[in-house]
Specification:
This protein has 161 residues and is mostly helical. It has a domain at 41-128: Arc Repressor Mutant, subunit A (Orthogonal Bundle), CATH 1.10.10.10. 70% of the residues lie in helices and 7% in strands. It has seven helices and three strands; from the N terminus they run ααβααββααα. It has helices spanning 9-37, 43-55, 60-67, 71-83, 105-126, 131-151, 154-160; strands at 58-59, 87-91, 99-103. The chain has a three-stranded antiparallel β-sheet with strand order 1-3-2. A hairpin with a 7-residue loop joins strand 2 (87-91) and strand 3. The longest helix is centred in the first third of the chain and has 29 residues, at 9-37. The chain is globular and about 55 Å long. 13% of the residues are buried.
Length: 161
């Protein structure tokens, strides 16, 4: 039995989209985090390794922006990855006050091994949609995200970054 209030077609559609999007995100986030933990990594650690594995060395600040986490949190993530021998910090040639983070050989081997396993797991999860629908949903989500960002106020945009 539905008990949802009705606010008009436009608002009802927006609310329905939001609920479905949030529930799908939560389900995928939970399942992928559980899979990532099988590699003895946290989702944030995996994200940092994935980013460095695909994009190469970068400043902690850039790594932070890629993952939408606080600088303090990313510093802890990098500290722990460094303790495990997966990443190394090096002074930036352009700015001696800044540090580049890069994968160590052990980190590169780890990335090469675990990323494809995780990607295959994710592909299996989303296979409930045919590939054409996955591509269409990706296109629509990008359109939604960029369109919403375009409409956001300057203050809202600052808070998103």
């Amino acid at each position: 039995m539905k008990t949802t209030e009705r606010y008009g077609p436009k608002i009802d559609a927006a609310l329905s989209l939001w609920v479905k999007l949030a529930r799908a995100h939560d389900t995928l986030a939970h399942l992928t985090a559980t899979n990532i933990r099988t590699f003895n990594l946290t989702p944030a650690q995996f994200g940092a390794i994935e980013c460095l594995g695909h994009l190469g060395p970068m400043l902690i600040g850039d790594l932070t922006k890629k993952h939408l986490v606080s600088g303090g949190n990313m510093t802890v993530v990098v500290d722990n990855l460094e303790k495990d021998g997966l990443v190394k910090r090096a002074v930036s040639a352009e700015d001696r006050r800044a540090f580049l983070v890069h994968l160590t050989p052990k980190g590169k081997r780890s990335f090469d091994k675990i990323f494809i396993q995780h990607a295959e797991y994710l592909a299996q999860l989303v296979s409930v949609l045919p590939e054409e629908e996955q591509l269409e949903l990706s296109r629509l989500l990008k359109k939604l995200g960029t369109g919403v960002m375009d409409r956001a106020t300057a203050k809202e945009k600052i808070n998103l970054r």
